[in-house]
Amino acid sequence: MRLTRYTDYALRVLMYLAAQPDQFCAISKISADYGISHNHLTKVVHDLGRLGFVQSLRGRNGGIQLARPASDITVGEVVRTMEDDFTMADCANCVIAPGCGLNPVLEEATNAFLAVIDRYTLAELCRSGTGFMTLFPAFHATRPTT
After folding, report:
1. In degrees rounded to 5, what are phi and psi of residue 21?
2. Cross-strand partners of 104
3. Strand, coil or helix: 121
4. pLDDT at residue 125 is higher than 80
5. Around 80, how many Cα atoms within 13 Å sit in the side-chain half-sphere?
6. Cβ-count burial of 41 within 10 angstroms (0-12 exposed, 13-18 middle, 19+ buried)?
7. Full-model pTM
8. What's the CA angle centered on 99, arms 98 and 101, to 5 degrees?
9. What is the DSSP letter of 145?
10. Beta strands 63-66 and 54-57: pairing type?
């Protein structure tokens, strides 16, 4: 199983916001820090807002932030919301489907995957808080030298 790039970007944005819970972040800054297309990220953020994961504030000091605490958002919730389909194989259109035991095995594996990611919150993914932000090159470029 592989998550779509869309879901990957959604998780990255949410982790970025979780690491800075009291700040509004500009999409352009997130885009630059991750090296992701601004236009593509704008579409992802729009969906995250529509789905209630982020809220936005317009204006000079505006941006986006999590709409609820990072500890209340599970990775499983985000993945289930962003992904359209968890089908691992096209068993419905296969000639051997009536006698094949692969579909229940793949379904069990998918359920196990989802059960694991349901156990983790955004807050846990960014445990180090501001330490998470030190991973971005821009963080080091803007820090004053002592």
Report:
1. -65, -25
2. none
3. strand
4. yes
5. 13
6. buried
7. 0.85
8. 105
9. P
10. antiparallel
